[in-house]
Design a protein that fits this description.
By secondary structure, this protein is an all-alpha fold. 63% of the residues lie in helices and 0% in strands. It is built from eight helices and no strands. The protein starts with a helix and ends with a helix.
Length: 171
């Protein structure tokens, strides 16, 4: 939870920290009562956090594309940090590439059918490079049953464009 808050504080232009802490204080009051009550009262609230109704999720505020976009950006930051750690110095440039339509097609087919052959069949039907498609499908084979949703090419490009200034500062 703390790492998500740190990420939120880095990425949000106008963080709604007070709202977050209010809900967090209520949600965690059974597990960390003293800390929750300190937060609750520091926000100027009356009574006790533990006595408040449990916060309900606002389904209309959930944007799966935005969540996936943040996952892309955080993965780039993490990967760059791992490279820096491995080589012991900050790179002078970092290039970020979005997956091509062939990889997206293989991924989508395998995700839908939970089978490596689906990716190969998609590649055949699409006249894709069979060597590259087979190698990519093979790399996904171990996790074929847990492949999650991905952004479209346009969405990914938009996310990367929007995050460009953040990434240049962060990396």
């Amino acid at each position: 939870m703390y790492s998500e808050l740190q990420w939120y504080m880095k990425r949000a232009q106008k963080p709604a920290l007070k709202s977050f802490l209010q809900k967090w204080g209520i949600a965690f009051s059974p597990f960390m009562p003293h800390l929750s009550e300190e937060i609750w009262h520091s926000l100027g609230k009356e009574g006790f956090a533990v006595e408040q109704p449990f916060p309900q999720a606002d389904e209309s505020a959930i944007d799966e594309s935005a969540e996936l976009g943040e996952l892309v950006v955080s993965s780039i930051v993490h990967d760059a940090q791992m490279i820096q750690e491995r080589f012991g110095k900050k790179p002078s440039k970092i290039y970020v590439y979005a997956a091509d339509s062939q990889k997206r097609g293989v991924y989508a087919a395998m995700r839908e059918k939970k089978d490596m052959r689906a990716g190969i069949e998609w590649a055949k039907e699409s006249n894709a490079d069979m060597g590259k498609a087979s190698a990519f499908a093979k790399s996904l084979m171990k996790k074929v049953h847990s492949l999650g949703p991905i952004l479209s090419e346009d969405e990914e490009f938009s996310v990367l464009s929007d995050a460009a200034s953040f990434l240049s500062k962060e990396l």
